[in-house]
Amino acid sequence: MNFNNILFALKKYFPVITIGLVAECILFSLLTPSFLTFSNFLTVARQASINSIIAFGMTFVIITGGIDLSVGSTVALAGVITAYGLSSELSIALSIIIGLICGLIIGVINGLVVTKTNIPPFIVTLGMMTLVRGLAGNISNGYPISIKNHSFLEIGKGYIANIPIPVIIMFFIFIIFHILLSKTKYGAYVYAIGGNQNAAFLSGINISKNLVFVYVISGLLSALSGIILASRLFSGQPSAGSGFELDAIAAVILGGTSLIGGIGNLVGTIFGAFTISILLNGLALLGVSYYNQLIIRGFVIMFALLFLAKD
Amino acid sequence: MDIKKGDPLLRIENISKSFFNIKVLDSVSFDINRGEVNAIIGENGAGKSTLMKIISGALKPDNGNLYLDGKIVFFNSPVDAQKSAISIIYQELTVFNNMTGAENVFAGREFSKYGFVNRGKAEEKTKKILESLKPDLDCTIPLSKLSPAEKQIIQIARALSIDSKIIIMDEPSASLSSGEVNALFEIIRKLKNKHISIIYITHRIEEVYRISDRVHVLRDGKYIGCVETKKAKSETLIFMMTGKKFKDLYYKENLIPKKVILDIRALSKKDSFQNISFKLHESEILGITGLIGAQKTELARAIFGLDKVDDGEIFFNNEKVNINSPLKAIRLGIGFIAEDRQSQILFPLMDVVFNITITLLNNLSKFGFIDFFAARRVTEDFISKFKIIPRDPERKVKTFSGGNQQKIAIARWVSLHPKILILDEPTRGVDVSSRRDIYKMISSIAKENSGIIVISSDLSEIINISNKIIVMHHGKIKAYFDSNEISEDNLRNLL
Lengths: 311, 495
Fold this sequence. Notes:
Chain A is built from 14 helices and 4 strands. By secondary structure, chain A is an all-alpha fold.
């Protein structure tokens, strides 16, 4: 078992960003004692879960060569709607369902406009981003809607077997959608459309149906994330999720998915999301100020992308 | 025609070039003399275009040197080559369609004072050059209004305006009618009289005989040799180009056509083709040929449901059908392999299994979950049956040669057992041995009672693999033959 064989096997199963992730962990372990603890790992995971769930949906969209900028606003709207439902004495299940339905509808609209018109996904979802943000503000009258339902609040702060519930949800979503993308024909069609839309069309693949499908996934997962976030914030906030689209895209790209489309997977995305989360966590532990964190984060992402682009 | 003796004008020495570990040129060496027309021939993929790009400065060789008039030269860009008096006229005419002829000739070298361009001077000089080429060509109108032949003349004018000593023409006759080719050859003779050397790239042997003094042959990136045109026998040239004797180039079996599977009646599309009628039988190979612009591809696209037709009817298996989308065509059992396999058919970043089985997924999945073992088995069957090399189902398709890529594209459709398969220029960019494999593939599909339509502008190919031939010209059917009724020369004269 020589070095080349090990390297080949590693390359096959782990995305390139793993090098960065491992390097970060080593660096922060050396710089501060509070990094390498179980509770800190849980913090990192919980921080990563919100972004990861959105990023999983974003991965599908980017593989088709598109992009979804409306995810952050969907996070807000879903949180607001769910909070509204709870404050109107609707059951938890129903409140969550109407929140998810928001995401579904947003996804359907995004998908239909992208497929039926020639407008690039960037523009379509940019418009949706603004529209949905406005809607969220309208429904909530601009104020956060408090959530007092204790069972619902357990989602955000509860644990199962010492693992935060958001983390458990993240892993379930990861497994379900990873299988969907890599083992089913629907996943194959996503890669086909992203790899060569023309060829996919000539092979008899229904482009419209499948594109709506990926935007719906993005919308749904953003809504789910928004609901979890609302639980953590004890309220549905119309301003929530601002900038989340950039974090999601960063996680997807760091994970090795190309903006051009056709390649990528969820394993890369989850590694990408954790890389970002660990970076922020480490910097916070080191007492780095917020704006310096942003600067460092920007550098790291640019550097990582340069390195990835060489592949 | 005196061939000037003395030192060669251009010496090419041990030029090699690789792309992605595929060796495209392997130690090519030969000379070009002054005032000579040198033809360079070779099959698709022989390396002709790459070599020309190196000589004209668009690419740098990995190894080897170029000597001009005995002195070594290094080109970092086409501008360097032009300064050394080497010009190239590309197959895909690299012209500015929105600018006038004169502007094209002097593009990059405009007459200007303090930034203000003197258009009149450019037009005056261009008219003077055109006097010896085609005096009635208007160089003051945008190039978009000129025919491909006229655009080519503008490019030649540009080469002359830089006082080129060597003009490379890469497949110049591809989009020209026979009359325009004659005019081009007249111009080439005039250029020779001015002691300009012409390097003429083509894969049409008859042109070699008409215009060249010497002919050099490339095959699979290697320089095979050169022959004085007067003394060259066509069997020799074919053998040098392909490494095979003529009888081994093609493959045709005696097929007995069965019932009519496709009946096209008076099919018309505005500004494209008119009144197209023909029948296709099961177990038959129908070849459709014609020059570029004959609308052969457009006809195929209409049959496959990619474009709408304005008039006419299509009968599939004796039933009238309205094919309005590829999905509908596929459901009927019609397959289509487009001309540009890279951009239209294949998924270059995905592996062989994906590319072959993508259309089969419905059959290979249970409740949406893909049976990867079955998919791999199907792929391996095709890899061995069609000799796809290298035999690695998980290798990305973009790493395969053109010929193997084409086999993969065809394999995808074969797995669906189509009743009709349309192939548009199936051997374009494919090496010689793969070509024969592809002809065999086509034959075996036909034997399983499919009707095959092959579209090709390679007359030799069409005659030697089809049972019936349709000749199209400007969107109409000009002639309809049984393939043994006609010879290649007669076919050529029809175009």
